[in-house]
Amino acid sequence: MSRGSRRATAAFAVAAAGAVLLSGCSAFGSDQEDAYPVQATARGITPGFMVEVRGEALVVEYTLENSGQEPVTVVDQLPAVIGMSDMTQDDVDPRLAYVGAAGDRTMRISRQVFGLGDDSGNPDVQPVVGGTRLEPGQEHEGVMEVPLPVQAKAPGYSTPNFSDGGLGRSEQVQACLGIVGDLPGEGEFRRVPVSQQDQVLVCSAPEALPEGVTFA
């Protein structure tokens, strides 16, 4: 990791330490129990996040460190065509993130396993995502971008303006990454099936929207 990245990691520590367990709100809505556990660290992964407006985008920089004893997969590689039933590393949009309302007037920017309600996990009907394998002691960093004005974006959203719980009323923002166990494959890239059931989201603490954020 570069010297600048280490400075950023230190700056992000406050946000990572403030991440809390959110209960009683859906992953992308305000009326149901959250479908995914949210916590500050998971499987030995300690995250750091920084969220700010840069030009015409809301940008999230993140750093991760695997201080655990086992390899893990960070769900941080999304296909350019959301909802694909299969993918390779060539399909990845390196800046893409999901966007939705997480309840309590909070917008959630995330990369995660996101199912469509079919519990079968059939890859023919479920979208897949990709992840990065992190060995114990390994560090990793990345960037997510949300074009302004913000629109909801995730598998199953019927139109770009679908807000699911009031995205346009958001007063706070939270950044999250899915963490699952080690998965088969070669190299760092891993295809993550939506049927993976042990996902945990590591998230920043909700913070006030940066100045300049607008909604479609």
Secondary structure layout plus pairing:
Layout: H1 3-17, E1 38-39, E2 45-54, E3 57-66, E4 72-79, E5 92-93, E6 98-101, E7 106-111, E8 129-134, E9 139-147, E10 172-181, E11 189-192, E12 200-203, E13 207-208
Parallel strand pairs: 1-12, 7-10
Antiparallel strand pairs: 2-3, 3-9, 4-5, 4-8, 4-10, 6-7, 8-11, 10-12, 10-13
Describe it for me?
The strands form 2 sheets. Strands 1, 4, 5, 6, 7, 8, 10, 11, 12 and 13 form a 10-stranded mixed beta sheet that branches. A 3-stranded antiparallel beta sheet has the order 2-3-9. The N terminus is likely disordered. By secondary structure, the chain is mostly beta strands.
Offer a quick outline of the entry.
With 216 residues, the protein is mainly beta.
How much of the polypeptide forms β-strand, as a percent range? Answer: 35-45%
Rg measurement, Å: 16 Å
**Content-based structural category:** mainly beta
Largest sheet: 10 strands, mixed
H and E order: HEEEEEEEEEEEEE
DSSP helix fraction = under 10%
Number of strands: 13
Mean pLDDT, all residues: 77
Give the number of helices: 1
Instruction: Calculate the terminal CA-CA distance, rounded to whole Å.
Output: 37 Å
Task: Identify low-pLDDT runs.
Answer: 1-33
What is the chains' assembly state? single chain
Shape: globular
Task: State the main characteristics.
mainly beta, 3-stranded antiparallel beta sheet, disordered N terminus, about 220 residues
